[in-house]
Design a protein that fits this description.
Largest sheet: 5 strands, antiparallel
Radius of gyration: 19 Å
Strand content: over 45%
Helix content: under 10%
Order of helices and strands: EEEEEEEEEEE
Number of helices: 0
Structural class: mainly beta
Number of domains: 1
Number of strands: 11
Length: about 120
């Protein structure tokens, strides 16, 4: 049986809540999340940390870990891949084709901090 955890789970990581979703974040990696209101090369701090693993111990919040935060550096504002939405009612001659591209922000995880101590 295989587990659904990422293969590089040996290092520190945090699970945070951002833009209505939960993200598994590791230091020195970049992620695409929903558009943030921030300038490029600015720093964003996420305080809604649900879980922190420092490599040896796991801190689970109820609902959030107190004193934990994740520093993100905004790298770029991007747009996701195009999705085509096509709706058709057969035998009625009704068709509707619509496209959607999600507005995204690419961020780099600078550091994960718990109680003033940086994990990475």
């Amino acid at each position: 049986m295989s587990e659904s955890t990422p293969t590089t789970s040996s290092g520190p990581y945090a699970i945070v809540e951002a833009s209505g979703q939960q993200f598994w974040l590791q230091p020195n990696r970049y992620y695409d999340i929903d558009r943030l209101v921030a300038e490029v090369d600015s720093t964003v701090t996420l305080d809604s940390v649900l879980l922190v693993n420092d490599g040896t111990a796991v801190s689970l919040g109820q609902p959030y870990v107190s004193g934990a935060s994740v520093e993100l550096k905004v790298m770029a504002h991007r747009r996701g891949t195009k999705l085509i939405v096509y709706k058709m009612r057969h035998k009625k001659k009704t068709r509707r084709k619509n496209g959607h591209r999600q507005e995204l922000t690419r961020v780099m995880v600078e550091s994960i901090t718990v109680a003033g101590k940086a994990l990475a």
